[in-house]
Amino acid sequence: MTVAPSAAAAPLVVRTSEIDDPGPLLSLLPDQPAASWVRQGEGIVGWGEAARFESSDTDRFETAQAWWREMVEHAVVRDEVGVPGTGAVAFGSFAFDARSARSSVLTLPSVLVGSRHGRTWVTTIAAQGVLPAAADLSVHRASGPGPVSFADGSMSAANWELVIANAVERIAAGDVDKVVLARDLEARTAGPIDVRWLLTGLAERYPGCWTFAVDGLVGATPELLVRLERGLVHSRVLAGTIRRTGDDEHDLALAGSLARSSKDLEEHEYAVRSLAEALAPHCSSMNVPESPFVLHLPNVMHLATDVAGVLADGATSLTLAAALHPTAAVGGTPTAAAIELIRELEGMDRGRYAGPVGWTDSTGDGEWGIALRCAETDPSDPQRLRLFAGCGIVAGSDPEAELAESDAKLVPMRDALSGA
Ligand SMILES: C=C(O[C@@H]1C=C(C(=O)O)C=C[C@H]1O)C(=O)O
């Protein structure tokens, strides 16, 4: 089912103007549904909603793209800044599985504030005939939800280990080379959960990640599915993980062992190859480094490869995200068989976890991350949050180690929630 107002009925009026630095982007969010895409203090935040598209259909990407094209075509825009992310911007979050019961969404905030390379701007968006929301750029402070308790989500940790063991058998039997399996955790809090509190905590601890919020999905992802900017395409592929110990010297030795681990290098190779193969038809030239580097995050280290390309076919960032999703970093190899195995073994609906999350502007430029290290709020219960984490399983995977890895990947959201 697709729910979207007709763009033609109410063309949008969009105004972007440059402003003086109003303070940290995340501190500007008022107590309203928040949208965010912030890294190292730069990016875009938004609030309010001028228009919305929602779909639970299997062709969610195509219908979203068509809706956005129509919105943009009819919009009346005055953009005094003219860089990627100014003018009309839609934030989006897509369900991982085309068969998910969870919808995918594009939302246009009514106020956006962006910052890039030292320039800051504000954009207001309203349907024609509607007075645009006043852009109140005062600074706000969010508060935490109080004591938190965690409980098993769809499956206990012990059962999840059995699922991993089962997946290793299926890999040995030749069903797939790699499959990414995830688990969820349920958090309950004493008071209501304020997304701004989570965002601020995540951005503080994980400044190198993309701190995102779209329609109640909130997290800090280290993995960039695709960025399209003026014809240049970038992607950061992650796969292969080791937990940090907190002891810098020991962690450095672990980073070395990660870079030499044949199990992790194999897992990583699958992810890079699937990304490069999906991107190649859209690019005239591509740079795919031969070997990965080690990305250091406060909780884990990952094998990482930054892929770059020159766009050849005029695709939009959203079209590219749709073409690349699901990469082997969150699906597996081969893709179709891995998705079937996830449906069979995982025992839950991932919803928007591990789906593309990010933004697009009216030119089609944009940034889409993979929704990892994240959680979904519950619109009917402000004291409930569902957290997710997953791991790539290959022939050499050990269930106990994978459970520990998934716990390490839950740390960013757990800490953000408890304010640790
Ligand atoms: C699936 C997740 O992470 C992905 C899986 C990784 C792995 O298995 O090594 C590493 C980074 C991500 O591509 C997650 O964080 O939930």
End-to-end CA span: 41 Å
Distinct ligands: the ligand C=C(O[C@@H]1C=C(C(=O)O)C=C[C@H]1O)C(=O)O
Q: What's the level 1 CATH class?
A: Alpha Beta
- Strand pairing plus helix content: what structural class? alpha+beta
Number of helices: 8
Which percent band covers the strand fraction? 35-45%
**Count of separate structural domains:** 1
CATH superfamily: Anthranilate synthase
DSSP strand count: 24
- Low-pLDDT ranges: none
Q: If you average the pLDDT, what whole number results? A: 95
Please give the radius of gyration in angstroms.
21 Å
* Shape-level CATH architecture: 4-Layer Sandwich
For the biggest sheet, the summary is: 13 strands, mixed
CATH topology: Anthranilate synthase
Q: How would you sum up the global shape?
A: globular
Q: Helicity level, as a percent range?
A: 25-40%
Domain Chorismate-utilising enzyme C-terminal: 158-409
Catalytic activity: chorismate = isochorismate
Pfam families: Chorismate_bind (PF00425)
EC number: 5.4.4.2
